[in-house]
Design goal:
The complex is a heterodimer. By secondary structure, chain A is α+β, with helices and mostly antiparallel strands. In chain A, 23% of the residues lie in helices and 19% in strands. The relative contact order of chain A is 0.22. The radius of gyration of chain B is 22 Å and the shape is globular. The chains are: A alpha+beta, B mainly alpha.
Chain lengths: 239, 310
């Protein structure tokens, strides 16, 4: 199995619900070991998040014949990509950082982690954050303590972020199965991997923006003579 | 990258100590006339430098009680390899000292093992940084070769300072001068290529796969950060967001080059009686060089935060 997420950049509205749900579930999770906050009610709150959403602006420079409507706000949620060739796993001196052979999930064993931060240096996605209270590295577990839990109804055996997403921009599944929803969506939409030039083969896929409808400004401005005449006559009506 | 004092001290002190150890073992191998007491005295300094450095490196661990487990991933992790070689170095060095009064094959074998282990540790330290594709300013030949070279170079200066018997020896002095000049050229070329290295990092478009022409991958739209999503600092901004004030960069780089390389060469060539000053200047310069090495290195995760890579 190659478990991972497919995230639709076209439908994500950047509400941070996935990050909050992640924090809610993993903050008390035994598997993830917690995601502490530092000074949460203070002047400069900070803390560990396994999932962060950043917001970007994409401005078409006109080479595709774009116009004002080609400027878009894009919300990009990022968490561990569970890379196939994960350097964070290779650089770890103790083996605390490991990738499960059965489903490809990358996890941290807190009983082995020395808190050297080296794995966070090796990760290009900023997916690993040090828990400064426990002194061990924390990261997304794909909610490994939900997805296999037989006590949960089957529909709820998904990562907390996927269940929480109000626009269904997040999809969870097995990328090894060509008929899974994530595989089909990725194939249909021509999914991309973020910063794959480093060669770590990230599993999580991003479904790209759909082409924005083109507005032909010149054609819209050129109204037929009859329309212009009607507008002029309408202006003469004294009400 | 955040310049952690413990790691800066570790790489400079251990580097010099390992370099000195290599020099001492090479003197044994070369059959130089050696007073055993003086040899052990200098070796003691090398051992103290290496040990102080290694202990200092554990200070940046958030969970040092698990440090004993860090020999497990010798096959894949340069950090693990460094630990294994460092632990092996101590018995090897003791064995060399024990065999020192004698002559012959066993002593030479012991000295060779010490040279190989110390060189391996220097290389591992360099590779810990140079293997990271996420930090382009480290992932290059200058870093791969620089750390071992600087260790050998500062170790050689320490040898001449602690053991002035070898100062009149033109061969040792000449080798140290050559090492300093090669080191100077390497570090100068690194500073010259700093901007180009930063520009070669993936762009924000490539990082996000946005604004790229389908098929060709050419950039066709400008991407910029609107909102980083957090109100105050995060682990990521604290670890990777360090900025050296632009006005200080040139001065600090010149300091590193002048004190680390140029002044020691000048003193060695024209005022060899000031060898202590040369050694101290080199170590001081290397501390500045190492601080810059961390503070100026840029991690690619900065792209997602809209931060510059140069």
């Amino acid at each position: 199995m190659k478990l991972g997420l497919a995230i639709d950049l076209d439908t994500c509205v950047g509400c941070h619900a996935c990050a909050v749900a992640c924090k809610e579930w993993n903050g008390a999770s035994l598997m993830a070991g917690g995601a502490p906050d530092y000074d949460p009610q203070g002047a400069a709150p900070s803390g560990v998040w396994f999932n962060r959403i950043r917001h970007y602006e994409v401005v078409d420079d006109g080479t595709r014949g774009g116009c004002e409507s080609a400027t878009r706000t894009v919300n990009v949620p990022m968490s561990c990509m569970h890379c196939e060739d994960a350097d964070c796993v290779k650089v770890c001196p103790t083996g605390a950082s490991y990738k499960r052979a059965s489903d490809g999930i990358v996890l941290v064993d807190p009983d082995r982690c020395i808190g050297c931060n080296y794995c966070s240096w090796a990760c290009p996605y900023g997916a690993r954050e040090l828990d400064e209270v426990a002194g061990v590295m924390r990261k997304c577990t794909l909610c490994v303590d939900r997805i296999y839990d037989q006590n949960l109804p089957e529909a709820e055996r998904e990562p907390a972020c996927v269940l929480a997403c109000p626009t269904h921009a997040r999809h969870f599944g097995d990328f090894d199965d060509p008929n899974s929803r994530v595989s089909r969506l990725s194939a249909e939409r021509g999914s991309v991997s973020l910063m794959d030039s480093l060669g770590y083969k990230p599993v999580n896929q991003y479904l790209p923006l759909r082409a924005a409808p083109r507005v032909d400004v010149a054609a819209a401005a050129a109204k037929p003579v009859r329309d212009r005449l009607r507008t002029w006559v309408n202006k003469l009506i004294p009400i | 990258m955040k310049p952690a004092i413990s790691v800066i001290f570790f790489t400079v002190a251990s580097g010099a100590g390992l370099g000195l150890l290599i020099w001492l073992a090479l003197l044994l191998l070369a059959g130089a006339p050696i007073d055993p007491r003086a040899f052990v005295r200098v070796l003691w300094v090398a051992a103290c430098l290496v040990t102080a450095g290694l202990l200092s490196s554990t200070l940046h661990l958030a969970n040092p009680k698990h440090a004993w487990q860090s020999f497990r991933r010798f096959g894949s992790s340069w950090l693990s390899r460094e630990g294994v070689f460092a632990v092996l170095l101590y018995p090897a060095t003791l064995f060399m000292v024990w065999q020192m009064p004698g002559t012959g094959l066993i002593r030479d074998l012991a000295a060779t093992v010490v040279v190989l282990l110390a060189a391996a540790i220097l290389l591992c330290t360099a590779m810990i940084y140079a293997c990271l594709k996420t930090v382009p300013h480290w992932n290059n030949w200058q870093v791969r070769n620089g750390m071992p070279l600087f260790g050998l170079m500062s170790g050689g200066l320490l040898l001449l300072a602690l053991w002035p018997l070898f100062l009149p020896d033109r061969s040792v002095r000449a080798i140290v001068v050559v090492l300093l000049l090669v080191g100077l050229a390497l570090k100068y070329s690194y500073y010259l290529s700093y901007r180009r290295i930063g520009e070669s990092a993936p762009t924000i478009n490539e990082a996000l796969k946005l604004g790229l022409e389908p098929g060709t991958g050419k950039i066709n739209a400008r991407v910029r950060l609107l909102d980083v999503g957090h109100a105050h600092g995060t682990f990521l901004t604290r670890e990777f967001g360090y900025e050296v004030p632009r006005s200080r960069v040139l001065g600090l780089r010149l300091c590193a080059l002048a004190f680390g390389f140029i002044l020691p060469v000048a003193l060695l060539l024209w005022l060899p009686q000031l060898i202590w000053l040369a050694a101290a200047s080199c170590l001081g310069g290397l501390l500045v060089e190492r601080w810059l090495f961390f503070a100026e290195a840029r991690h690619v995760v900065r792209r997602y935060h809209g931060m510059p890579m140069t």
